[in-house]
Amino acid sequence: MSAARRLAINRLREGGPLDGPAIDRFVDRYGSPIIEGERATFLFRGDVDEVWVRHRVVGLPDGLPLKRIGESDLWAVTTVLPEGSRVEYQIEIRKGESYERFNDPLNPRVAQSPMGSSSVCAAVGYRVPEWVHHDPEARPGELVEEQVRSKALRRDQPIQIYLPARFNRAQSYPLLVVHDGTDYLQFAAMKTVLDNLIHRLDLDPLVAVFVPPRDRLKEYPNHAPHARFVARELVPLLTERLPLIDTPEARCLMGSSFGGIAAFSTAVRYPGFFGSLMLQSASLVFTDIGFDHGGGPAFDPVVKFVNAFREKPRQVVDRIHMSCGVYEPLITPNRSMVPVLRHTGTRVRYVESRDGHNWENWRDGLGVGLPWLFPGPQKYVYE
């Protein structure tokens, strides 16, 4: 029997009358999506005119149309999903002139983000990393909420400071500055991840400061006041108040998407002040020919910044950990920037995942990137 004929949805088609009870049993047994090897079958049940799977997977049609099974109210589509993949999606339906979009009602697995929730399809081979889950044996660090006055930003800036378990003022700690800090805590379980990695001796105990933006589209793409706040106000303030190692190699900037641009552009404006960067799916959009970058007006300052750096690249930190999902549009510019950065003498570790532009992808990457930048006793040799 061929692989296609072995699929559950095809056995249903060939197995007899598609009445309501038969479909009920099928849906109750399998749910959606049905993962069989490298094939994923998405299902929808309802009296509608059209159904699509909406997603952000580069190379896969969006939306992916489902077809009605016979004359029933069951709809299905099968696509290839390579081993280890993780995809976020929603269902869109049309009934007459009315369109509606929502999470998959047959799939209880969802991911949260600042934009809301999405259904999750996990292929064979994907597992949520064990250090993402709460470990009752890991001593928790402490989160301290504060407001700091910023002359550069002309406002009070909220921050949250992470102090590791067994924090001791007689010791000195590295500093990690996290852009989109509130989102990393809420949607990437970052406090839990830090607690676990430190407990497991994979990560050197460190102090992290989580910084949320007020207007990220303005403040994150190469914004001088933001960079000045981080390098000339926030870091010196924390260094004065906390037992931090006051050397560049002990200071790291990190961020995802536009937050990655904020981290990178701050390092470019203050070269040598930070020792490392952690860039997750950074919006490193550029144009080699022409002016149409396809990102809309919000990306204009990003493109201007990246183009200028590519024209005159220079080393601004010692090490960069870069990561990107192969299913996101930013995969091409991220791949393209790796040799540019390495050519400056910067040590770059670049990692790809079978995932998209989302917070759980960035969450999963924390346990890969942070121990490389600040290795604990179990990771004392840089890879």
UniProtKB/TrEMBL annotation:
Gene3D superfamilies per UniProt: alpha/beta hydrolase (3.40.50.1820), Immunoglobulins (2.60.40.10)
Pfam families, alphabetized: Esterase (PF00756)
Domain of life: Bacteria
GO BP term (any one): carbohydrate metabolic process
Species annotation: Terracoccus luteus
Protein name from the UniProt record: Enterochelin esterase family protein
InterPro entries attached to this UniProt entry: AB_hydrolase_fold, Esterase-like, Ig-like_fold, Ig_E-set, Mycobacterial_A85_antigen
